[in-house]
Design a protein that fits this description.
- The structure is a single chain.
- By secondary structure, the protein is mainly β.
- It has five domains: 121 residues, Macroglobulin (MG2) domain (Immunoglobulin-like, Sandwich); 123 residues, no CATH class; 79 residues, no CATH class; 72 residues, no CATH class; 126 residues, Sandwich (Jelly Rolls), CATH 2.60.120.
- It contains one helix and 57 strands.
- The chain has a 17-stranded antiparallel sheet.
- The longest helix has 8 residues.
- It is elongated and about 150 Å long.
Length: 609
């Protein structure tokens, strides 16, 4: 004797979005012939609620539970915020079926009620006739036998107080039972092996009802309406529904009747296609758009269809398009082509609007760091100076024009190899305000070359001092340079002699990512430092790092006055998906790094743990 839990799930609609689940929603309880000794091990259900496919918290008050019979005793236990367990712990002997209604008072909705039903099978009622079965009448015809009860088997003869005390009862009973039903019942050593009657059946650990077939504890069921499912503790592990939909992996994989599938986990594949995208072991592409991890590129080519030769990166260079690639440490970047002509590139080769740039120079044509350029039209702007085909301005203030026919040194001494042939040099007179031993000046301060090597151009928008330090008041494009953070020896010192604008890269995407700025000194006065995070490649970059100052230095920002104190002293800044802009400021003997774009950061970015 035992309890049969029906594994079907009752879903009570709360609204279009909410439903209540009872797993199982009913059970069959075995008892003795007189209704005593009910087997209640599996007489329970798990109550939970869903909003769509997601569980939602519920609250149930045990005092509001309604029972079909007041003598039914039950127990309500809260499993967690999402589940309750309702168990039947005692039943009166005079009932054959009943129910328990469970109102949901709060959580997902008010006024919602679920019902857990049960029926009782009195198994031993078919055994009481065995003691006097010889007194029953049997009719035997020429081709038939009619008898109210049949028992085929064996029993031990002797005097016993009750049928339950008869040892070793083994056989099959066919006939009626006390609840006005009839059936077939099989026993071995007093243990029921199977039965089939008006309530259903049981065989091999499976219970049969009008609703379907299920295992004894209700975890696996095959319903007559067409659904097959497995569940336990209120969780549906998998389900094949009658409408063709299905769910697997505790609802993390679902399919609807249209064949649409949803996966909450990851999908691993070495090949195939999804929505027109071809998936390979090393690539994914859709016609002219391709991502290739082996050849390390992302490319969008300007072609109408897939070409017979090459890949998307090749097609960008031949037919036009945009690509990002990283073939090696010396061959990487972002490129754009119109037809087969390069429009721009940024990376190991930097080029835009006809100008190339790197960490040393900005140039058109061939880079030349000294003397004149070798080709007419070529120009190079570098830390050594500015130069063209027949002219140059050196960093020390010296220079030349007309292919060295006009030269001057850093002290302002000038040499003309040719001659000046003009009706006049200037309207007026040449005096010390224009040409003297200290300087060569232009009328109106448009430009000047001073004897100590300093000077200015473009109405003082471009100036330089005697040491070659250039100050540009207008805009000047400087190249960004990669800066790799060495996670094996963090913090990684930043060498400002290698540049001023950096894109942070990571030697390892795990572990601390810390950049160490050098101690601010007067030589850095006015220098602007830009460090950008968030530059992603197909391999590898995180989008954040921390920046500190060597020697536990403090960053300055608007409103920070160290002599008066400050609500926060910033010794570390976290840069995530943005650029930090710093400038070195020297005031007398006081030199510090100043955060120019302080407003781009939040308090969480300062002094992170």
């Amino acid at each position: 004797m035992g309890t049969v839990a029906k594994s079907s799930i009752t879903l009570v609609s709360i609204s279009d979005a909410y439903s209540l689940s009872l797993t199982p929603n009913s059970c069959v309880i075995k008892a003795d012939f007189d209704g005593s000794n009910p087997k209640l091990e599996h007489a329970y259900t798990i109550i939970s609620a869903y909003c769509g496919d997601e569980k939602t918290p519920i609250e149930i008050d045990s005092s509001t539970i309604i029972k079909s019979n007041d003598n039914i005793e039950c127990q309500l236990i809260k499993v967690d915020s999402y589940r309750y367990r309702l168990s039947i712990i005692s039943l009166p002997v005079d009932i054959l079926q009943g129910y328990i209604e469970i109102p949901v008072l709060s959580g997902v909705s008010a006024g919602l009620t679920g019902r857990f039903t049960f029926s009782i099978v009195r198994e031993s009622t078919m055994l009481d006739w065995i003691q006097d079965w010889e007194n029953n009448k049997t009719t035997i015809g020429s081709s038939y036998v009619i008898t109210p009860k049949i028992f085929v088997g064996k029993k031990i003869i002797g005097s016993h107080d009750s049928l339950e005390d008869v040892p070793g009862l083994t056989g099959v009973y066919i006939g009626p039972s006390e609840n006005n039903g009839a059936g077939i019942y099989g026993y071995k050593d007093n243990k029921e092996i199977f039965h089939i009657d008006q309530t259903g059946g049981k065989i091999g650990g499976w219970d049969i009802t009008s609703g379907g077939i299920q295992c004894e504890d209700g975890t696996l069921s095959i319903k007559s309406e067409g659904t097959i499912s497995a569940q336990s503790e209120g969780i549906i592990h998998w389900s094949l529904n009658k409408d063709g939909s299905a769910s697997f992996a505790n609802g993390n994989v679902t399919m609807d009747v249209e064949g649409n599938a949803s996966f909450k986990g990851t999908i691993e594949t070495s090949g195939g296609s999804i929505a027109g995208w071809i998936i390979g072991a090393d690539s994914i592409y859709n016609g002219t758009i391709g991502i290739n991890s082996l050849k390390k590129f992302i490319a969008i080519a300007n072609v109408a269809s897939v070409q017979d030769i090459g890949n998307q990166l090749d097609w960008v260079k031949e037919y036009g398009g945009v690509a990002m690639y990283c073939i090696s440490n010396t061959n990487y970047g972002l490129i754009g082509y119109k037809n087969n002509e390069k429009v721009f590139s940024a990376g190991s080769d930097n080029f835009i609007a006809g100008w190339n740039f790197n960490e040393k120079a900005i140039f058109s044509g061939i880079q030349t760091n000294s003397g004149f350029t070798t080709k007419s039209g070529d120009i190079t702007i570098s830390s050594n100076g500015i130069r063209g085909f027949k002219w140059r301005l050196e960093k020390d203030g010296s220079g030349a024009l007309a292919g060295d026919n006009i030269t001057w040194d850093k002290d302002g001494n000038m040499n003309f190899k040719g001659k000046i042939d003009a009706s006049q040099i200037i309207s007026g007179k040449i005096d010390t305000s224009l040409i003297n031993t200290d300087a060569i000046l232009a009328n109106g301060d448009a430009w000047a070359l001073l004897k100590d090597g300093s000077g200015y151009l473009a109405s003082k928008n471009l100036t330089w001092d005697e040491f070659g330090n250039i100050n540009v008041l207008a805009s000047l494009s400087l190249p960004y340079k990669e800066f790799y953070i060495n996670t094996d020896s963090t913090p990684t010192p930043m060498d400002l002699s290698q540049g001023r604008y950096f894109i942070a890269r990571y030697g390892n995407i795990y572990g601390d990512q810390i950049i160490e700025l050098p101690t601010p000194i007067k030589e850095y006065n006015g220098s602007e430092i830009r460090i950008y995070s968030g530059f992603m490649t197909t391999r590898a970059s995180r989008s954040d790092f921390d920046i500190i100052i060597k020697g536990n230095g403090i960053f300055f920002y608007p409103g920070y006055i160290p002599v008066l104190g400050s609500p926060i002293q910033i010794s570390k800044v976290r840069v995530s998906n943005k650029e930090i802009i710093l400038r070195c400021i020297s005031l007398g003997d006081f030199v510090f790094w100043y955060i120019q774009n302080f407003c781009d950061f939040t308090n969480d970015d300062f002094n992170p743990q």
